[in-house]
Amino acid sequence: IYQCDWSSDVCSSDLLIGLSYDFKHLKGIEILENVETPGLGGEISTKSFQNQFRGLIFPPRIKCVKNRKNKRNNEIQAITGATISSSSVTRIVNRTLTKLASLAKENAGK
Length: 110
Known about the structure:
Distance between the termini: 21 Å
Structural class: alpha+beta
Number of strands: 5
Radius of gyration: 14 Å
Low-confidence stretches: none
Order of helices and strands: EEEHEEH
Largest sheet: 3 strands, antiparallel
Helix content: 25-40%
């Protein structure tokens, strides 16, 4: 489990990211604190949004899709009316996973 804090143009949050030991499967995310622009963006704190991340495979990067069903094991549905917030969460999860995978690879030989 890795805790990170982040901010973007639309929101600021603290979240936990749970990973498998091989850094390839996402166990889930939990948004601990969310300072979101009023409106639908606050929906990123709901379990229904967060549960979409469980079991996703990384790499490839996680994608946020809208107006269609998920086609791959690395996609989540954007919240209708809050695509920017959904994409912001997805982006920080991708950045964090990339960083952690890189650190794990560096430390594998030590």
